[in-house]
């Protein structure tokens, strides 16, 4: 499984990458901005995106809206310090599959990833 990690903070990307590796996720592509993330998303198959909100240039919410408008179905988990209820609602309405507040524990991130991947891989119920 390939994860795209999008965060302008080198330290935060390093922390997230370490947590992901400890959870068994080692195929990680990282970038420090949304424009580069969009290029990577178009160039390769990405199974999951971990996306920061606050970045220079295009912010995470705008990136999320942009890729969803282009038809991207890749699940996105916002990993951010934006804890205001209206930000969480805006991200979920824009198409985020889940939301993780920084700082997070490895258990929280693991749970969110498992929930999102389970939902993404769930087959629709057969119609009777």
What does this structure look like?
It is a single chain. This protein has 128 residues and is α/β, with parallel strands linked by helices. The protein has a single domain (2-117), classed as Rossmann fold. The protein is built from 5 helices and 5 strands, in the order E-H-E-H-E-H-E-H-E-H. The protein has a 5-stranded parallel β-sheet with strand order 2-1-3-4-5, sandwiched between helices. The model has no long low-confidence stretch (mean pLDDT 93).
Q: Beta-strand percentage?
A: 15-25%
Distance between the termini: 33 Å
DSSP E strands, number = 5
User: Structural class from helices and strands?
Assistant: alpha/beta
List SSEs in N-to-C order.
EHEHEHEHEH
> Strand count, sense and closure of the main sheet?
5 strands, parallel
CATH architecture: 3-Layer(aba) Sandwich
Q: What do we call the CATH homologous superfamily?
A: Response regulator
How would you describe the shape? globular
Compact description:
The chain has 128 residues and is α/β, with parallel strands linked by helices. The protein has helices at residues 10-22, 34-43, 60-69, 85-94, 106-121, and strands spanning 2-6, 27-31, 48-51, 76-80, 98-101.
């Amino acid at each position: 499984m390939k994860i795209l990690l999008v965060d302008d903070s080198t330290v935060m990307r390093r922390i997230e990458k370490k947590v992901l590796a400890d959870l068994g996720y080692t195929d990680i592509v990282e970038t420090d901005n949304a424009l580069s993330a969009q290029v990577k998303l178009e160039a390769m198959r990405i199974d999951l995106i971990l996306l920061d909100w606050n970045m220079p240039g295009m912010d995470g919410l705008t990136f999320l809206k942009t890729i969803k408008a282009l038809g991207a179905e890749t699940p996105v988990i916002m990993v951010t310090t934006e804890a205001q209820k209206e930000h969480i609602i805006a991200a979920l309405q824009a198409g985020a599959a889940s939301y993780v507040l920084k700082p997070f524990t490895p258990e929280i991130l693991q749970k969110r990833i498992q929930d999102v991947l389970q939902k993404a891989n769930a087959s629709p119920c057969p119609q009777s």
